[in-house]
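WARN retry 2 of 3 for item q-0093 after timeout on previous attempt; input resubmitted unchanged.
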Amino acid sequence: MPTTLGFIGTGHITAALVTGLCGSDQPPDRVVVGPRNAEIAARLAARYLQVSVAKDNQAVIDASDWVILAVRPQVAREVVGALRFKPRQAVLSLIAPIADEWLEGAVTPGRLVARFLVMPPVEFRLGAIVYYPRNPEVERLLAPAGTALAVKDKHEFLTTWSITALIAPYFNFIATSADWAARNGVVPETARAFAVSMFHAVAAVATMPGAPAPLDLAKAAQTQGGLNEQAVRELSGKAWFEQVSTALDGILKRLEGRAG
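OK item q-0093 returned
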């Protein structure tokens, strides 16, 4: 059955998701985007034949079977509240689910099918798309752009979302490794290329079908008296891994409104 997917909000995440979906081997039949960010909307429409730009947000709703809400939390209530949804229209929300109890009522007589989270690498069909509650139709719709993972409730959703706060620290970890090598005489471009390639390769191993759990991979990488064993011992001695957990505790408290 043909599917028309509409986007309210045309920012960078929308651009990444549309690119991932339309570039997959199972693209939506039609995509309608709002005109709010004219540059991004025009670029998507020029790149993909199935993408068109609506005259306004209401036109997106009127043309779509599925609607994805991708507006900033600060303006979400105002934007969504001004729209008239069709009876039983399927709605997915990318809006941060913090104090959003108003959302289900705002999309009525449409139905809020799921809340979900994507990250920028979805543009390249990389990474997880976390959503709740579980729904086979939602998984079918989103899976072409990444690994669709259902969680059972809002707490699990926010806990999983907390881990995304480690993206910048991860890149910092790579940069620190490369900078250290450069300070010790390696050509900076070579140091950076090696660090990026190495971390990409070991991360890819963990995503292979049937791969051991990350902790088992960590243990397998540590030969007795070896370099990895030494690094883990020294970082553990400084409570480095515990500090990661502590940072994530703080992120989750913030997302759940418990900070401070």
